[in-house]
Design a protein that fits this description.
alpha+beta; Jelly Rolls; 2 domains; eight-stranded antiparallel beta sheet; seven-stranded antiparallel beta sheet; 17 strands
Length: about 280
């Protein structure tokens, strides 16, 4: 009996020693989580992927959800994004702002239709703008959205003569901005600085468009996550016009014909890597 008791005690001691070695080789799960969370928060200079509502929350789990959402996102649904999102218009059935309070107002005959690739989208008929929102654009900003058209644009002039995608112009002012399609390419003006893209956007294919402006620095055009033009940004606000029209210029009657989906506004100029992330995570499989 004593021999059996001694063997049992020795066996228990060996098991305990083994468990202590195991714990020393594999730290606690929460310690690993904290390490991973810190890495996610500090990666890419603060450009880690996070949810639309709170870019600061999520850590490792937010980065993981970014991959999942990128693989199975639905048109207009909240998807992973980069920091600074202040407005999002999914354009599924209305022009409401999904993350802020800047709800849009439909214009003219703008309507919603179902696209085979992106689901519910806004249809612009070339007779009026699609919708208008309050011009809450910060001095440094990004607008990003998806666009589809197979209708040739205006072919003569500059960005103010093009078929407007984003129009917040005021005659005689420089503290405004316009992004249009001219010569079938993107064309932009603000503070008398202009840049035109080089890629054709009138090809019956969905394209991701992003316009970034760093106040006092540079404005960039991006098409499908790739830089497509740049110019000086000027120095100062872009608040001359109290409204931003999407899909048309109501003063000069230069309108866009096609489809627009998932418009997003940021309160800072996104970097090239962040625009690429946005393009990837909002594309549909």
């Amino acid at each position: 009996m004593n021999g059996r008791l001694s063997a049992l005690i020795l066996g228990s001691a060996s098991l305990l020693a083994c468990n202590e070695v195991t714990l020393s080789l594999f730290p606690k799960a929460d310690a690993l989580t904290e390490t991973g969370g810190s890495a996610a928060a500090s990666g890419n200079g603060g450009a880690s992927i996070a949810g639309d509502v709170s870019a600061g929350s999520g850590g490792t789990s937010a980065a993981g959800s970014g991959s999942a959402a990128g693989a199975g996102a639905e048109a207009g649904a909240p998807t992973p994004s980069v920091e600074g999102l202040v407005g999002q218009w999914p354009l599924d059935a209305d022009a409401d702002d999904a993350v802020g309070t800047n709800d849009g107002t439909l214009q003219g005959n703008a309507s919603f239709t179902t696209d085979a690739s992106r689901g519910h989208v806004l249809r612009c008929d070339g007779q009026s703008p699609g919708f208008a929102i309050g011009n809450l654009t910060s001095s440094s900003f990004t607008y990003a959205f998806w666009v589809w058209t197979d209708t040739a644009s205006n072919q003569s002039g500059g960005p103010l003569d093009g078929n407007a995608l984003l129009w917040a112009n005021t005659a005689g002012a420089i503290d405004d901005f316009t992004l249009s399609v001219m010569n079938n390419r993107l064309d932009y003006i603000s503070y008398d600085q202009t840049t035109a893209g080089s890629a054709n956007v009138v090809d019956g294919t969905w394209h991701h468009v992003a316009l970034t402006r760093e106040d006092g620095g540079t404005a960039f055009l991006y098409l499908d996550g790739v830089a497509d033009g740049s110019c000086g940004a000027g120095n100062g606000p872009v608040s001359s016009n109290p409204l931003v029209y999407i899909g048309g210029n109501p003063v000069d009657h230069r309108y866009f014909t096609g489809l627009i989906d998932d418009l997003r506004q940021y309160d800072r100029a996104l970097g090239a890597d962040e625009v690429q992330v946005l393009f990837t995570t909002t594309a549909l499989p």
